[in-house]
Design brief:
The complex is a heterodimer of chains A (124) and B (221).
Chain A: H1 3-20, E1 23-34, H2 41-51, E2 61-67, E3 70-73, E4 79-81, E5 97-101, E6 105-114, H3 117-123
Parallel strand pairs in A: 1-2
Antiparallel strand pairs in A: 1-6, 3-4, 3-5
Helix pairs in contact in A: 1-2
Chain B: E1 2-11, H1 14-30, E2 33-39, H2 45-56, E3 62-68, H3 74-81, E4 85-90, H4 99-107, E5 116-120, E6 137-143, H5 150-153, H6 155-159, E7 163-167, H7 179-189, E8 194-197, H8 206-220
Helix pairs in contact in B: 1-4, 2-8
The chains are: A alpha+beta (124), B alpha/beta (221).
């Protein structure tokens, strides 16, 4: 359910950036989501289809880039990439670790179609 | 038509984070300490707040912001009966509180007359963990009746907490709850978290939690 409000935030962000670039349409949106953040791709996609309707971003394709969770061990210093979220250091087994990756949640980039220059001249 | 890639690199929760920072500044300016209490439904958030009020009021002046998914305001009324200045937020079905909802609730509280604000989030172990509200400490209430595997299943909630209250410990003799297994999961996710085993029913452990909170609330006030 909380994907509704985050999808609204995504829409605000991408439309603002597209308007700043005077783009005609947004075709692709690249989202980066860490493995440890609790956002579901399908759920964002579901709300996206409804919310983006009638905006510059209508029909834009959402790309989800998942970042694996990584922890650094405070005991032995090794970095581990976690298969599941609740694990300790894979080298020494210590539970004393800190998360260094996997909590990301941001819009990396958008791809837009710029308004054709000749069209702009014709409009002007 | 020419195609262009625009680098955005913008945190999706940035709008919320900005409002949370403004809430934080408001608490700081008023010298108020603030908590965000989160748990699954039925873990005992409201009972905890009643016990906390009983232990700290009126020496500590307490305001309460209570989030629910409907207009059912019995939790806020329980807080008000126990002596807190109380504001109810109806999230309209939303599964968590966001910083702007707390901002609105703060308008209805006289912060200059308070030492402590307790925000009671919507009962939910997933969504509330993702939204910064601008408080000083995030408090997770776990109850032994939920089972000892919850840290492993809801890591984001447990990772983000400053305080963990393990409630309903008076029921431990009747349950197969493995406290060591539970705490191992908690430590794995969050080595620094402060843990208080409590029972809101018997009052056991409430004193230690209340002292921890009293020291912070009066230091800020």
């Amino acid at each position: 359910m909380h994907e509704l409000s985050v999808t609204q935030h995504i829409l605000e962000i991408v439309v603002r950036h597209a308007q700043q670039a005077h783009a005609a349409r947004i075709t692709d949106i690249h989202l980066v989501i860490g493995q440890l953040s609790s956002f579901i791709d399908e759920s964002i996609q579901f709300y996206w289809d409804t919310l983006s309707s009638g905006t510059l971003a209508e029909g834009a394709h959402l790309h989800f880039e998942r970042v694996p969770a990584q922890v650094d061990c405070n005991e032995c210093g090794q970095r581990s990439t976690l298969a599941e979220s609740a694990q300790g250091c894979l080298a020494c087994g210590s539970l004393n670790v800190r998360v260094v990756a996997g909590e990301e949640f941001y819009v990396r980039a958008i791809q837009v179609q710029a308004a054709d220059e000749r069209e702009q001249e014709a409009e002007a | 038509m020419s195609v262009k890639v625009i680098s955005v690199l913008e945190n999706i929760l940035q709008a919320n984070d900005q409002v949370a920072a403004a809430n934080r500044a408001r608490f700081a300016a008023a010298g108020v300490y603030a908590l965000n209490i989160m748990s699954s439904p039925g873990a005992g958030k409201t009972s905890l707040i009643e016990q906390t009020l009983r232990a700290l009021a009126p020496q500590v002046r307490i305001g309460m912001i209570n989030g629910d998914t409907t207009a059912a305001s019995m939790d806020a009324e329980r807080g008000a009966r126990a002596g807190a200045a109380s504001v109810h937020i109806n999230t309209g079905g939303n599964c968590h509180l966001e910083a702007h909802m707390v901002r609105q609730a703060l308008d209805a509280l006289d912060l200059s007359a308070l030492d402590l604000v307790i925000v009671e989030n919507v009962g939910n172990l997933v969504c509330p963990a993702g939204w910064d509200l601008g408080v000083h400490a995030r408090v997770v209430v776990a109850s032994v009746t939920e089972g000892d595997d919850k840290p492993y299943k809801y890591p984001t909630m447990y990772r983000g907490a400053e305080v963990l209250l393990l409630n309903k410990i008076d029921l431990l003799p009747y349950l197969d709850f493995n406290t060591d297994y539970f705490l191992q999961g908690v430590r794995l996710l969050n080595p620094a978290v402060q843990v208080f085993p409590i029972s809101c029913r018997s009052g056991e452990g409430i004193g230690a939690w209340a002292e921890w909170l009293r020291a912070r609330a009066l230091k800020h006030g």
